[in-house]
Amino acid sequence: MAKIVIAGKSECPYYARAELLGDKLARNLPNFQLHKIVQQPDDWEKWLKNTCNERGWQHMKSPIVWRELVDRGGKGVLIGGANEFQEYAFGYYGIQSDQVSNDMNLISKENKQYKIDIVKEEAEFKARSSPIHVCITCATSPVCYAIINSIGQGDVFGKHTEIALHLLDTNDKLEELEGLKMEAEDLAHGLLREVSVTSDTKDAFKNCSAIVLLDDLIQNPEEDKSAWIKRNSSHFSAYAKVINDAALKNVKVLLTGNGPVNMNTYMMIQNAPNVPRQNFVGLSRRIENNAKAVVAERLKVNTSGVVDLIVWGNVNGEHYVDLTRSRVHGYDGAIWGPPSFSLPAPEMVWDKPWMEKDYIELVKTRHEKMTENLKHTPSMSAGGAITSMLEHWWNGSPAGQMFSLAVCSEGWYNIPDGMVFSFPVTMVSKGYWNVVQDIELSEEMKTAISATLQDIQSEKDEKSEKTESSEGEKQDDSEGEKTDPNLDTIEEEKTGSTTEST
């Protein structure tokens, strides 16, 4: 099913004409869907530029009208301005606008005043609103320590969003949590309205809008992979059941760490039926940032200048680092341009043997090398990957840029529906991610992605085999393990875990 989107300046008479024609179509056509976007005159040019850059369109005036498929996403098809929309409506539906100039001007003035009133009401509502509840698990982890300041000063959820922070860890860590709470309060951030500490998952997840899972279940030397996978599945399934009952139904859950992130995300989706499956995601950005840093070192640019580098597949298993569409800003080459100007990273590197061998090895060993140099697991870079991901998910990512994220597939790129896989995404719409679906894959990429797919499937098979051998029959994935919501009970299944989460 398709819908028509009409966007324009609040005071624009031609937007008023397009709006009224859209209303007429909606009244007369049973399956016609209409969505309107109104921008104040001061915001219009920036909004239009960002929208067109993101979708690859050329359009310079108000209004702009496009058509998009409701169930498939994508950038949509540009129709044009008011005149083009009128021709479209007449050509497809035989309906024309009958508005005269005086009516258009009157309605445009009403639109402008209405938008002013709405903005004012939203500001007043935010001023009266309660804080959003955010939980961080395994909160004595150094990674948690690295992200609290960013959350408290508004870098993650917005400069006007107050936070009630829930810190969750085991009973034996409560004294440390109390110290962490005191230090967080000493930050004196006005947005950090309250900080609570607990070892009870029901209390921790209650009314939460966002949850960051830092738990890292390390594989013991004597533990085979199937037992490790099963232990992870049980632990995160137990979390999911509590989230399903205690958190808000639109809660956003981010899984991190060095464990089987894709598998853990999959298990949480199976055990939290009340939460939309798109609200459970696995962090790919740490690996993505590692890969960007290696390219940046090679080209002698700032890491932030490397964009559109994608991690496909199994986050902490078999994955494919895709440089083919990567671009670089700020490169000191023969061709210069404004800050928005970029050059293809593969062409700037211009060393195919390095990209095919040395580069892959440097990315794989970067985390290990940092750990060796630091004498402990990196936490600052892990925290930065988490906070930037949450910021983009909550407030929107930069227009025209792609990022990596492990999400539940809907069949994109022939990845089976329901499998958690790291895809290229954009998050321009606040609170949502969208998989970029128009990338043409080379045969080499298809082969690499197929290998990552097999690796993810093998983890599911490991979990199923362990369940069969330990219980005599195969359980459904949604059953998980009957675990009490108290975190210390969960910890009994978490032998060998660590708080050094990344």
Q: Sketch the major β-sheet.
A: 6 strands, parallel
Total number of strands: 20
In the sheet with the most strands, the strands line up as 7-6-5-8-10-11
Report the structural category: alpha/beta
Radius of gyration: 25 Å
Overall shape: it is globular
Number of helices: 15
Query: Unreliable runs, pLDDT <50, ≥5 residues?
Result: 467-485, 492-502
What percent of residues adopt helix (DSSP H or I)?
Answer: 40-55%
Beta-strand percent range? 15-25%
Mean pLDDT: 85
Distance N to C terminus:
41 Å
Family: Belongs to the LDH/MDH superfamily. MDH type 2 family.
Organism: Mytilus edulis
Protein name: Malate dehydrogenase, cytoplasmic
Biased composition (Basic and acidic residues): 457-485
What would your notes on this structure say?
The protein has helices at residues 13-28, 41-55, 82-93, 101-128, 142-152, 174-186, 201-205, 225-246, 261-270, 285-299, 345-349, 352-374, 380-395, 443-471, 487-491, and strands at 2-9, 33-39, 64-69, 73-80, 132-136, 163-168, 192-198, 208-213, 216-217, 252-255, 280-282, 306-307, 310-313, 319-322, 327-329, 342-344, 403-408, 420-426, 434-435, 497-498. The chain is an alpha/beta fold. α1 packs parallel to α3, α1 packs across α4 and α10 (285-299) packs across α12 (352-374). The longest helix is centred in the C-terminal third of the chain and has 29 residues, at 443-471. The radius of gyration is 25 Å and the shape is globular. The two termini are 41 Å apart. Residues 467-485 and 492-502 have low confidence and may be disordered.
